[in-house]
Write a structure and sequence with these properties.
Elements lengths: L6 H4 L7 E6 L4 E6 L5 E4 L9 E6 L5 E5 L4 E5 L7 E5 L7 E8 L2 E6 L5 E5 L4 E7 L14 E2 L5 E5 L4 E5 L3
């Protein structure tokens, strides 16, 4: 197996952090040195990601990218930051775009095109339940930036409807 990647191995040896930035138009995630901001490399090989949006870490620390335009979630092994595995295939959700961590083993995943929010188990990558059914009644074009408020509700921006929807995930 490949050695565990630490920031010093990729960027400035004196820096212990990396910055990952999704680039929707470039169809990749850019890795930058967290101390001096210098570009290091792309996260994925060409063609793996299409329209990457949200980035998060799963319970094992692996990096997961929400790839909107090819309708999937792709996990990158933390040990190498290069081994890509599709953990959610097209068919579960059209145009996934945003994610919010619920707890150590679950996230809420939102869809731009269907305006749906589901709860996803990050241990087996299976849908647990629908939190907000697909509809264009209350919001259109769920966008990046969904967040959990201090009141326990999801606050969901609508790109096409120019609004913010408050959703009780329970």
């Amino acid at each position: 197996t490949a050695p565990f990647v630490v920031a010093q191995d990729l960027g400035d040896p004196g820096c212990d952090s990396l910055i990952l930035v999704s680039s929707w138009r470039a169809n990749n995630v850019k890795i930058y040195d967290g101390c001096n901001g210098e570009y290091i490399r792309d996260l994925a090989d060409s063609g793996v990601l299409r329209g990457p949006q949200a980035i998060f870490q799963d319970p094992q620390g692996d990096v997961v990218v929400v790839s909107e335009s090819n309708h999937k979630l792709v996990k990158f092994d933390l040990a190498t930051l290069s081994q890509a595995t599709t953990v959610v295939s097209p068919g579960l959700m059209s145009n996934p775009i945003t994610v919010v961590k619920k707890d150590d083993n679950h996230v809420y995943l939102g869809s731009y095109s269907s305006n749906e929010i589901i709860e996803l188990n990050t241990q087996n990558w299976q849908k647990v339940r629908t939190v907000l059914p697909a509809s264009k009644v209350h919001i259109e074009g769920i966008d990046i930036g969904m967040t959990m408020g201090p009141d326990g509700h999801l606050y969901v921006p609508g790109y096409d409807s120019d609004n913010i929807l408050r959703v009780n995930p329970n």
